[in-house]
């Protein structure tokens, strides 16, 4: 099989020396990739510089990315070149990316300049005006290579990133798609319910639902949910990897 795996966590630049990221190490993605490789499959591995990765080998192709935009562009390029048998989307993708950054003084100056245009506005008019003003301020071009640290407060504008999982089925209709959902401190019932919702919404074949509070070192409880609502549970990263590989292989054989 030809497998594409995303792993690690994206970063979003604030300036040339600072960024926002998450704590994903890519360890689970690495083990999944290694398990597929051990079965003789070809793996295209999309990952970040900070994440761990499998050792270089003949059937492994590494595609490095940094931001969510990089990820989107890299996937579109790969999808244009290859019809993958399966896409395993384990990467922790940033929900938001940086739009612009302003010092407290710059923000107050820009917002004040807009507010003086109003004369005795109603509450609704003021809300609409503020929404418009913040949207315009958010479009301020951030061209400093390193933002000065002299201000007491730094205001960071963030805008929503596209949902990468939402495009997988459209771009790879033939692929067996495995998505991942991480929650924190929820019941198993809620974890499964949310996982099923994500699966149905994004037309995945499987979702691996897990809770951050159950992840400690190699201990990693994961619940694999299929399109019929059936679940299988694993207790370690290695077990999760075997569960995913076995289910993808079985579904692939049944499709032939």
From TrEMBL:
DNA/pantothenate metabolism flavoprotein C-terminal domain: residues covered: 2-103, 142-249
The keyword Chaperone is assigned to this record: no
Gene3D superfamilies, A to Z: CoaB-like
Domain of life: Bacteria
Keyword list, A-Z: Ligase
Pfam family, one: DFP
InterPro entries: CoaB-like_sf (IPR035929), CoaB_strep (IPR011848), DNA/pantothenate-metab_flavo_C (IPR007085)
Single GO term (MF): ligase activity
A biological process from GO: coenzyme A biosynthetic process
Keyword Ligase on entry: yes
Protein name: Phosphopantothenate-cysteine ligase
Lineage, highest ranks first: Bacteria, Bacillati, Bacillota, Bacilli, Lactobacillales
